[in-house]
Amino acid sequence: MPRFSIIVPSHGVVGRLSQALDSVLAQSFGDFELIPVCDAPDAPAAAVAAGYAERDSRVTAVHSPPSAGLAGARNTGMRAATGAYLLFLDGDDTLAPGALTALDARLTRTGDVDVLYAEHERTPWWEGEPANPAAALLARAPKGAFAPGEAPRVTGVELPVWGTAYRRDFLTEHELVFPDGHFTDLGFGGLVTVRAERIAVLRSVVVRHHVRRQGSRINLPGTHHAELLDQVDLVLRTAAEQGLSKRRSGPLFEQLFALVLRTAAHPARLPGASRRAFFRRAGRLHRRHRPDGFRTPGGSVGVQHRLLAAGAYTAFRALRGANQRASAAAQRLPRPAGLRTRLYYRRQLRRPLDPDLAVYCAYWGRGYACSPAAIHAKAAELAPHIRQVFLVEPDQAHAMPAGVEYAVLGSRRAWQVLARAKYLVNNANFAEGVVKRPGSVHVQTQHGTPLKKMGVDQSTYPVVAAATGSFTKLLGRVDRWDYNLSSNTHSTQMWERAFPGSYEQLEYGYPRNDVFCTATADDVTRIRRELGVPEGRTAVLYAPTHRDYESDFGAGLDLEAFCEAAGDDVVVLLRAHYFYDRGTRAGTGRVIDVTGHRSTEEVCLAADVLVTDYSSIMFDYANLDRPIVVYADDWEVYTETRGVYFDLMAQPPGAVARTPEELARLFRDGSYASASAQALRDAFRSRFCQFDDGRAAERVVRRVLLGEPPEAIPPVRPLAERTPAPAARTFVRS
């Protein structure tokens, strides 16, 4: 029998589930079983859990339908558990390093107890100082194991389920399970402490709880708050049946009704029609369960207790009137540069939205590019009634294609369309001063599949975090998103954790990659001719990514020497990261600089093989099913300074080289295109090319601009049924 059974519900948190499971498996104390509870065998979280179960025999996944709620998931995990003590861990939290060792040591000193309460750390997802809210309460508890009456304020009501170890035989003996409905933690915690006879505390952090930036779902407005009273009634009825002493029943009653009053005093949580009913029922419970000799707290809380007991709702509402409604997002003061421009923008915000106006931007105004451009082009075909305006920086205006209406960023015209447009599409983020108006629709297309850490996941990497700036401001921009595009389930999960928000994920593929399924041999020939690729040569696209610890671009490889060593037929297309695009480079010899070319997708179509380090271009290029080589000369440094979501060295899209000599040898002997490299690419494509089937832009236009229902959107074609654009070598050499 393992010492601990750790139960991890996973509904709605698949993006962070791996962090929770990793935090358990990384514990130095190994005598445990880990039980992730997934919605169903085919749910996204089940695939994550299954991968862990294959690698570690201590992991056993079980299933509980979403309709059973959190209580059902935890109860399912309890039935499967065989450990001496049960621990519960939310799927978006982590077990602190050394937590199990500390729990085991404490239980060894105290002997068997029914409940062991521990401290926890509340950590914001984005930024801010962590807090330890249980520390003050537990500090007043006796040093060893004790009976609950010795510390009556340690009731379990103010302590979370996931910071506590429960003896399994104790729970089984008393048939203690999580009660159905909302606020199940409150009901379970109260029932446990009423039944417990021997408890102890551990004054060290066991769980790191990641505070949701939107707050707990349970605190959202709705009629479900009435279930708080159900749980309070259940706990206090059980306490009365057990004959709980006055010493214990008073603190329990006070703590439970502190939660009740907090909800009653928060009008936004309760729909208007239900506020009075909630208050009246709470008053009846207060009068029914109030212990003899209960002393009402002092101050404002005491006044609220007395008003609740008297059923004086009108007076209570007047007292509550000091609480002000939160300002609506549309009332936030816009911040475009310049007083006149700010006033002009504010005037435009007072005008009605234009239901037939869409505004696009790519790479902070670098031009007509990426998925916004692909959506723009498809909308011109399928939704010609939509007026479309592209936003660009002044130095890119000359490069806009003929027939594309544009506005220069920062100009009055740009602020006007930003204020009036119903649809706003971007692959990065609009400026912080852009207001999300009610009725407007913001589409975030992203511009790559995440290998490196993104969003709030960058906060633990100092160099990257310093460059990112305020994560609170970043997530304020995320709050504007209505839709977020994804090209594979890996991205869906990583966007969920990197950019926590209330947007809807659209697993439609990346519109910019449509061309990889629609381009023809003639298109490839034309592009190669425009780029200056000699006929019959093997064009190697070299596309290194940006290093956060470097201030300027360095190729990282002697490209002329590589060409000489790789073979006479090799030419290199150099595509530097867009951070370094100055549009001034020119090709020399066998190295053709295509950094300034308008379209990354066209450059990919021209290339016969891709060489990259850790750039997300590999995920896009994989759609072409052409050879990919990873040149990883500084993988360890990169992972240490930037952080990655998976081990690229263990799951590469093709051959891997760590030195210039290894890279050249792959081309000299042809092993860059070997059968083993093909097998790696097949596995990589299966995982990361799920939704890029050539119709992503169409799906976005139909769903967002035309308002078609999800069931009417064209489904994604399976990978085996797609035909990628042909490589030049395929038809030139034949």
Break the fold down into its secondary structure elements and pairings.
Layout: E1 4-9, H1 14-25, E2 32-38, H2 44-55, E3 62-63, H3 69-80, E4 85-88, E5 94-95, H4 99-110, E6 115-124, H5 135-139, E7 164-167, H6 168-173, H7 184-195, E8 199-211, H8 226-241, H9 246-264, H10 272-289, H11 299-310, H12 313-320, H13 339-350, E9 354-361, H14 370-382, E10 387-392, E11 406-408, H15 412-420, E12 421-426, E13 441-444, H16 462-468, H17 471-478, E14 483-485, H18 489-498, E15 504-506, H19 515-518, H20 521-531, E16 538-543, H21 559-566, E17 570-574, E18 591-593, H22 600-606, E19 609-612, H23 617-621, E20 628-631, H24 635-641, E21 655-657, H25 660-668, H26 675-688, H27 696-705, H28 728-732
Helix pairs in contact: 1-2, 7-8, 8-9, 8-10, 9-10, 10-11, 13-15, 14-27, 20-22, 21-25
β-strand number: 21
- The strand order across the widest sheet is 3-2-1-4-7-6-8-5
Provide the gyration radius in Å. 30 Å
Describe the global form. globular
Q: Helical proportion?
A: 25-40%
What is the average of the pLDDT values?
89
Q: How far is the first residue's CA from the last residue's CA?
A: 66 Å
Low-confidence sequence ranges = 322-333, 579-587, 730-734
Number of helices: 28
What fraction of the residues are assigned to beta strands by DSSP? Answer: 5-15%
